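ARCHIVE CARD
CATEGORY: sequence design from structure
SOURCE FIELD: tokenized fold
FIELD CONTENT:
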């Protein structure tokens, strides 16, 4: 939302605030990639997701994951990112490896959009203009209505 308020174009998965951002600006003004909620649920339920499949079958992904521990980051101890590598290869609860190709494609689309200055500027202005929805006042009011159910306190502001 902070990026949106500053003219950034959302590039992300369809979860969290990105669902609301998509509703506010329209599909043509965001870059959504990866699985949707139904696909995520189905993948969890099937229980057959193997992140190593993506690691072994995508040379870009293989390179990136290997660079976590192969000394590529010369100022970082070689095993500093071993836990991250292991989580990606043996757990990957968020399907990061499954969404990697879609993530790369979304970045390519962003690169092409940025070359079209008029389109990029239009998207940027629209994102900034529609960010009004994410104000703290509206959010607190909605949380109170839906969750907290607190009585409002009227404060009498007087000059002293």
């Amino acid at each position: 939302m902070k990026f949106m308020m500053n003219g950034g174009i959302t590039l992300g998965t369809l979860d969290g605030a990105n669902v609301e951002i998509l509703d506010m600006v329209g599909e043509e003004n965001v870059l959504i990639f990866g699985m949707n909620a139904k696909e995520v649920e189905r993948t969890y339920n099937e229980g057959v997701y193997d992140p190593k499949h993506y690691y072994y079958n995508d040379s870009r992904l293989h390179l990136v994951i290997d660079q976590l521990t192969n000394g590529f980051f010369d100022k970082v101890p070689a095993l500093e990112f071993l836990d991250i590598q292991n989580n990606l290869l043996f757990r990957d609860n968020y399907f990061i490896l499954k969404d990697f190709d879609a993530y790369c494609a979304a970045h390519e689309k962003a690169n092409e959009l940025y070359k079209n200055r008029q389109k990029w500027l239009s998207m940027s202005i629209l994102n900034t203009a529609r960010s009004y929805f994410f104000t703290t006042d509206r959010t607190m009011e909605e949380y109170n209505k839906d969750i907290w159910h607190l009585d409002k306190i009227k404060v009498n502001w007087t000059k002293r």
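CARD ANNOTATION: Strands lie at 11-12, 31-32. The two ends are 38 Å apart (CA to CA).
SHELF: design records, drawer C
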